[in-house]
Design brief:
The protein is an alpha+beta fold and 193 residues long. The protein is built from five helices and nine strands. It has two domains: 45 residues, no CATH class; 108 residues, GMP Synthetase, Chain A, domain 3 (2-Layer Sandwich), CATH 3.30.300. Helix 4 links the parallel strand 8 and strand 9.
Length: 193
């Protein structure tokens, strides 16, 4: 019986190894990738720093493009009619670029006499490497539309504007589009002044 017990003890780990061989293979492969230099593992250099850079996402062209896109979609809502949208920004969009940072110091590592930190954007064949794109945050929206005098239309426009911009309903104003006769009179009055 002692031999059989010893044999069972010896074959039991081999059975477990056979049963979980794929799991063990994946774990071993993961450990090898972590140890591989430059992939972010323990032996890799620290991740590049990032600094926010104003990029094309923050440009006035993108704001105008967003306003035009909102106008196109809002005019399709029943009862809205002609529409004009103006958005104001709290903060513009920005691109966060990958940075290759280095630190040089003189003296001992525990108490350096002086140090110098430098960084530069990481580039590849396509240009600079962008790690994150932050979208603009809007401060408010003004929507002028022909149906702005109707409460149901105003509600629909505010709901749609809120969904598109992330603004609360208290930050979106919807007003009625001035008709042509009143616009002409107001224009003449402004000229007379």
């Amino acid at each position: 019986m002692d031999r059989e017990d010893a044999k069972r003890k010896l074959t039991k780990p081999l059975e477990l190894l056979g049963r979980y061989k794929y799991v063990l293979l994946v774990v071993a492969l993961g450990a090898a990738l972590l140890a591989w230099p430059g992939t972010g593992g323990a032996g890799a250099s620290p991740a590049p720093e990032t600094t926010p850079e104003t990029g094309p996402a923050a440009g006035r062209e993108d704001l105008a493009e967003t306003e035009r896109a909102m106008e196109e979609i809002l005019c399709k809502i029943s009862g809205v009619g002609m529409v004009d949208v103006m958005l104001t920004l709290h903060s513009g969009g920005e691109l966060v670029l990958a940075q290759d940072a280095s630190l040089r110091y003189s003296g001992s590592a525990q108490a350096p006499d002086s140090y110098e930190r430098s960084s530069q954007p990481v580039t590849d064949a396509g240009g600079v490497v962008v790690t994150q794109e932050k979208y603009p945050q809007y401060r408010g929206a003004l929507v002028v539309c022909e149906g702005g005098g109707n409460d149901a239309v105003r509600f629909q426009v505010v709901s749609a504007g809120s969904a598109l911009t992330g603004l609360g309903s208290d930050r979106i104003a919807v007003v009625k589009w001035q008709d042509a006769a009143a616009a002409g009179a107001a224009e003449r009055e402004m000229i007379d002044r």
